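Hi, here's the filled form for the chain we discussed.

Project: internal
Contact: R.S.
Residues: 340
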Amino acid sequence: MSDQFAHDNEIRSVLERGLTGQRGQGGRIASLSRHPFEYASSCSIEELEIVLQDRSRLTVIFKNLSPTALLGDARRVRPAFLYDPQREIRIYQQVFSKVNLGAAHCFATHEDERTGQIWLFLEKVIGRELYRVGNFSLWEEAARWLASFHQMSNVFAMEASDLRLLQWDMNQFELCLEWAQNSLCSRHHGSKVQNKLDDILATYEKVILSLASQPKGLIHGEFFASNVLVDNCENQVRVCPIDWETAGWGPGMMDLAALGAGKWNEAQREAMLRAYWQVVDESLAAEWGSIAAVRTAYTSCRFHLAVRMLGQMPNWSPPSAHQHNWLEEAELLAKEVAAQ
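And the returned structure, exactly as it came back:
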């Protein structure tokens, strides 16, 4: 038996166990074909075309989260302290199995300590990446989704460690600063931008305490528009965030900062923030105090994001659709947070 055939059989066996567990005998697989998925980013992703024994068809996204399947760009760009291949599996197993917020349905998971295999089998969601959507009301809908997600996160507070979440506390922000310092200084030492970077990082060091003291909850961690699918078919909007590898316990405004990243004007960012605030319930509103406090926290988190992205840039060039002048943004935001 060839290695490839054995691998095919193992994938089929894992997926069939999951499907029959959810659908009974109707989940038995008659045939399975595998194809590379064109949008793979940090890990190997395939699209599986399934024919079940009742002749119904199913398309499944197979994410190979095993450390050996991490793609080259992700190895260079993402620091080791952000990477935990089991984190996304825990989110689907222990969060989205309990709350219905439009996330992709999980058909099966597989973890094998002996071989290091970590697999995730998800529904292929019909929708467009939010960054391809020009209808601004759908961006506001994504902000409202975030508020709904953040305010239910207290349900999972006791499970935060079991979920293997990134803990965005003082230590984590200091690690982010250290990573940015090492990355930027090695690249720009003696250059014309070095003084600008020194000022930015010095300001970031001063705001770490305020970042760490913001109200915390369950966050996506990289809620960029490229990680959000939207489907507004039949007048019903489904917001479906994907790629939960960096899910964490931290300031919710980090997610809103990622959503508002890019070439938006201040009025549009304010509209997203207000859409978020519209959905906030009384308990979360009381924790924040006022929308003015949220606005201040949002600015600090936008600054954090700019510093983090600057730290990545020496090792990574984003696709043209996602390119942005993070240095200019970090300079402007450094002045804003210093004046707060």
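Let me know if anything looks off before we file it.
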